[in-house]
Amino acid sequence: MKSVLRETAVWVLLGAITASWVYLVQQNRALEDRNRMLARRAIEPHAGLFVPSYPVTTLTGIPVTLGAVGHRQVLVFFRTTCPYCRASTQAFNAIAERLAPHSQIPVYGVAMDSAPAARAYAAEHGLRFPIIAQQSPRLVGLYRISSVPLILVVNEQGRLAYARLGLLQSATAVDSVVTAAQDTLPVTRRAPNPAAPQARRPRLDPY
After folding, report:
1. For the chain, what are the domain ranges?
2. CA-based nearest residue to 86, from 68, 113, 63
């Protein structure tokens, strides 16, 4: 009888140890996920982030203030050498066309390149919105541009109402940008890499 009780106690103890180990593993994974999220949040643009106003000039010489308080804007950041940006140009144009009737929500393309490169790229791909050429490290830091393509919707308070990082091709993705531009709710999205499983982080062109 004592041996049975002793064996039962051992199994109960082992079960408790196993349960504790599983719990600790789960807690550790949750903590790691949270730390990764906080690390990304510290270096990537996200909904609710305040972005200072930044004066620039379009390729046609028109002065523009990015993040101007009192105005809503859609900003499309890209590089002329980025294949994911090139694959997203049709979607960029679709967004600009759908927002064209809303003059109070302008769409600006911000090329992280020289003016000649940006001008040639815009002509080659038929971009239908004003283009700004900027290679300023200050702008990169203020708007946390670590990768492209990147789409930001800045609201009237100078905060991001929407942030989308990654390839943009589907009609659903275009709808999400247009809806966010016309809405007031903050949204942050990361586009999935079509060549990888949904859970993986998309491949992006680092700035």
Report:
1. 1-43, 54-206
2. 113
pLDDT in tens, 162-177: 999 999 999 999 999 9
Q: How far apart are CA 84 and CA 149, in angstroms?
A: 7
Instruction: Tell me what pLDDT residue 202 has.
Output: 36
Q: Which residues contact 21 (CB under 8 A, 6 or more apart)?
A: none
39 versus 205: the higher-pLDDT residue is 205
Per the CB < 8 A criterion, the answer to whether 148 and 78 are in contact is yes
Residue 17 confidence (pLDDT) = 72
DSSP 66-92: ET-TT--EEEEEE-TT-HHHHHHHHHH
Strands 187-190 and 131-133, bridge-based pairing: unpaired
Helix or strand run (H / E) with residue 18: helix 2-43
Q: Is 2 helix (H, G, I), strand (E, B) or coil?
A: helix
CATH architecture of 54-206: 3-Layer(aba) Sandwich (3.40)
> Rounded to whole angstroms, how far apart are CA atoms 153 and 138?
19
B/e letters for 104-143, b = 16+ CB within 10 Å, e = fewer, are ebbbbbbbbbeeebbbebbeebebbbbbbbbeeeebeebb
Q: What is this structure's pTM?
A: 0.73
